Amino acid sequence: MSLNQELAKSPTGIQGLDEITNGGLPKGRPTLICGGAGSGKTLLAASFLLNGIVQYDEPGVLMTFEETSEELGSDLASLGYDLEKLVASGRLVVDYVRVERSEIEETGEYDLEGLFVRLEYAINSIGAKRIVLDTIESLFAGLSNPGILRAELRRLFRWLKDKGLTAVLTGERGDAGLTRQGLEEYVSDAVILLDHRVQEQVSTRRLRIVKYRGSHHGTNEYPFLIDREGLSVLPVTSLGLTHPAINERVSTGVERLDDMLSGRGYYRGSTVLLSGTAGTGKTSLAAHFVDAACQRGERCLYFLFEESPQQLMRNMRSIGINLQQWVDRGILKFHADRPSRFGLETHLAAMQRAVRDFQPLVTVADPVTNLLTVGTHSDVRSMLTRVIDYLKSQSITGLFTSLTPGSKELEETDAGISSLMDTWIVLMINEENRRRRRWLSVLKSRGMAHSNSVREYLLTDHGLQVLDGDSSGQGRMAAV
Amino acid sequence: METPPARAGWLRCRNNVETHTSAEPAVSDTETFLLRLYVAGQTPKCMRAFANLKRICEEYLAGRYHIEMVDLLQNPQLARGDQILAVPTLVRRLPEPIKKIIGDLSNTERVLVGLDLRPARRPTA
What we know:
The complex is a heterodimer. By secondary structure, chain A is of the alpha/beta class. Chain A is built from 15 helices and 23 strands.
């Protein structure tokens, strides 16, 4: 089917979901959202409905079979939706349908005309264009005659289509099929599957479009986030290699390191890896870069995977770098998360979202190697590829620190991610005459004539200082 | 057989015929039953339900019941209050607690159980 013949779409207003569905859910047709308990079905459905009201002027009916209006109201209030206000403004109807088997005796024939009447009344009262039924499968628990229910559901979905309503139904993930009651048989237009996996005590939410009749759609599993701003899906497929190459250069914050990078520092929009063993001063070098950027008035976003912002700022004060002033001025922002708090996909999602919200020119991730505690090398590499693609597409300079375990060969450890980087600076320590000496060198820096020397540097109370001239310690380095 | 009225309204049945129940009633035999039958138009199912209900009431609740008919096609806003999904639905509003029986009420025993006029576990007489 060619693009211009594609179905009319009803935008969800959910960050990312409209991109992977090429514009939203099929307009005037039912979409099934299925997933296990706590996978975010209700939230996705409600977001579609409420965004429709607020952003696209399409009134909506929310028929809930599980949560009362009050429960739902407080759930959604925490995400910034005011149900009562929308109801009062005549653009939303919330109808809680309670089905309790123990309270109902069945005798003889019946149909679900009462449900239809209720729906039609709600729809007509506000001129609804969108409707959510969450979770209609609850009917099977409440009523004992599945034959009647199936026939009536078939009638319901046909009726919704005839009325031209864009409907979202939710269904609990079943053992055999996508849903317990096989709702997917009735909804042939679009099916979205949500998944909430916990691996090694780390949870990741994912979304996949199982089916979307007559439309192009992304087929991958996409991570999605639920936070105080609601739900967002992250189209994380590699954006391709079309990002611009910028000739502008930015200072590393250390004059002599700039000199080593053909006298002008990093390329703006490039990626930089700082790797080294513990105590080499990776964070100090990153802090110099951030400090210099903030002095130029550039917004910086600093992802911390190990320390707290306070701890980092205190440590940096000891080498004469005052980051607090930039935080106070609002141009430096820290984003601290324990790697184990969630899975890689979620970290990726959170990072992208933070970047989108803060709009920085410079980002630092320190140390990315900590992410290895929640993923394998190849997972981390693929995640970083996506982070880097995203940063490059936004022309954001990205600096990553990597902790090299003392026991391993330097280049082996970093091999996975270094190839993604434009500039790779290695920091080293060796011990000589009962004194530790630190050395740095530029292993690579694409697109510039960089120094090949290994330089000694000091961490002083007024910053990191690279000493003059080529070092005679080069030979010793190989032994480290 | 009476035709169900199309609108909501009270049908007062005050025949002082001697009350007779064949089994021990679960509720006292002096309470008045307030019953509401929800229908959607005059479909055969709904008419059957009304006829069955009238017959059962006359037999077991004579003189102490009110039946209110609600046609949801006329009064759709009433479906929400009593949580109506299925049609026909009989709601026992009094005595409390509220009870619901869905279907055309063709099985008298089950209606009696549903109305608490007969203990659920007792074999039918």
